[in-house]
Amino acid sequence: MQLLNGNEVAKTLKANIKLEVEQLKIAGKKVPHLAAILVGVDGASMTYVNAKEKDCREVGFDSTILRFDMSITEEELLKEVEKINNDTNIDGLIVQLPLPKHISEKKVTETISYKKDVDGFHPMNVGLMFKGLPCFLPATPFGIIKLLEHYNIETSGKNCVVIGRSDIVGKPMGALMLQKNCTVTVCHSKTKDLNSFTQKADIVIAALGIPEFLKADMIKEGAVVIDVGITRVDDTTSVKGYVLKGDVKFDEVSQKASWITPVPGGVGPMTRIGLMLNTLEAVKMKTILNPMVDRSIVK
Ligand code: GUN
C-alpha cells in the first residue's frame, strides 16, 4: 500500500500558488482576495474557515471573514452576499455550510455571483462542470482530481464507485471521474447490494459521512481508495474530546488497497488547494485574456 499524501501534495501546490501571486504582484496586478461568511459558532465550520484564512495568508492572498450571529435573517444574509457581489476588491466568496435551518442554502448559493462562486456550488458552475466546460469546480472533487493526477493514478477505462450523492462531493465527483474516462457508478443509501459494486471497483471514493463504513471485505485487492469522510467522534481520552474518523476503516482497508488517502492529511488539505486554485483563477479571469480555457479537465 502507498499513501496518497494530501499534506505533501498540498505543500507543493501551495508553493506554486504563492509563486503565481508574487508574479501577479510584480506585474502590478491584483492580489486574490477571498471572503468567507460564517454564521453561528459550529466548531467544525469555525475550524474550516480559520484554516482557509491561514492558507490565504500563507500564499499571499487577502482574506476577510464575515462572522454573523445565528439570529441573522435570510434577508439580511442575502444582502451581505449582494454587497460582496458588488465589491470589486473581493474576487471569491464562500458561505460556509451548513447554515441555520431558517436560511435556505439554495437561495444563498444562487445569490452568490457565479463569477465569485469559488465553491463551485452555483447552478451555472454546476452546469458548466457537467458539460466539461471551464468553470469553478467544487473544491473537494477538484482537489481529489489534482491528487490522483499528482500520483499518475490511471483512470481511463477504470471502474470507479463513488459512495454518496451529495451536491458538494458525490454528484460532481461522479461527473469529473466520467470526464477522466472512468466507468462511474454512484451508490447511495438506497443502493441494493452495495458490496457487489464496490468489490468490482478499481477506484472507490467514499463520501457518505459514516465513520469507518468501508471495510476490507468490500474492496478488491489493489483498489485505489479515496476517503472523503471526516467525522468528529467523541473520545474522552483525547485532549480535544473527539477524534477525526474517515469513512474508511483504514487499518484493514490499507492492507488490501494499492493506494489510499489517510484521514486526516489526505483529501482535507487538497480541498483547501481546490479553493485556492479557484480564487487565483477568479483574479486571472479579470486580468488575462480567456484564461478559463484550460480549466476543463477533459483531455
Ligand atoms: N461545508 C462542508 N464543505 C463545504 C465546502 O466545501 N464549502 C462550504 N462553503 N461549506 C462547506
Write the layout of secondary structure elements.
Elements: E1 2-3, H1 6-26, E2 33-39, H2 43-59, E3 62-68, H3 74-85, E4 92-95, H4 105-111, H5 123-130, H6 139-150, E5 159-163, H7 170-179, E6 183-187, H8 194-198, E7 203-206, E8 224-227, E9 231-234, E10 242-245, H9 250-253, E11 259-260, H10 267-287
Parallel strand pairs: 1-11, 2-3, 2-4, 5-6, 5-7, 7-8, 8-11
Antiparallel strand pairs: 9-10
Helix pairs in contact: 1-10, 6-7, 6-10
The protein binds guanine.
Guanine binds at residues 94-97, 119, 139-140, 168.
Please tell me what the overall shape is: globular
Q: Which structural category do the helix and sheet elements fall into?
A: alpha/beta
Question: What's the name of the CATH homologous superfamily of the largest domain?
Answer: NAD(P)-binding Rossmann-like Domain
Regions with little confidence, pLDDT below 50 for 5+ residues: none
**Number of folding domains?**
2
> DSSP helix count?
10
N- to C-terminal distance: 28 Å
Question: What is the CATH C level class of the largest domain, in words?
Answer: Alpha Beta
Helix content range of the residues, please? 25-40%
Query: What would CATH call the architecture of the largest domain?
Result: 3-Layer(aba) Sandwich
Count of beta strands: 11
Tell me the radius of gyration.
19 Å
**SSE pattern:** EHEHEHEHHHEHEHEEEEHEH
CATH topology of the largest domain: Rossmann fold
Report on the structure:
This protein has 299 residues and is an alpha/beta fold. The chain has 2 domains: 27-119, Leucine Dehydrogenase, chain A, domain 1 (Rossmann fold); 139-268, 3-Layer(aba) Sandwich (Rossmann fold), CATH 3.40.50. The chain contains 10 helices and 11 strands. It has helices at residues 6-26, 43-59, 74-85, 105-111, 123-130, 139-150, 170-179, 194-198, 250-253, 267-287; strands at residues 2-3, 33-39, 62-68, 92-95, 159-163, 183-187, 203-206, 224-227, 231-234, 242-245, 259-260. The strands form 3 sheets. It has a 6-stranded parallel sheet. It has a 3-stranded parallel sheet with strand order 3-2-4, with helices on both faces. Strand 5, helix 7 (170-179) and strand 6 form a beta-alpha-beta unit. Helix 6 runs parallel beside helix 7 and helix 6 (139-150) crosses helix 10. The radius of gyration is 19 Å and the shape is globular. The mean pLDDT is 95.
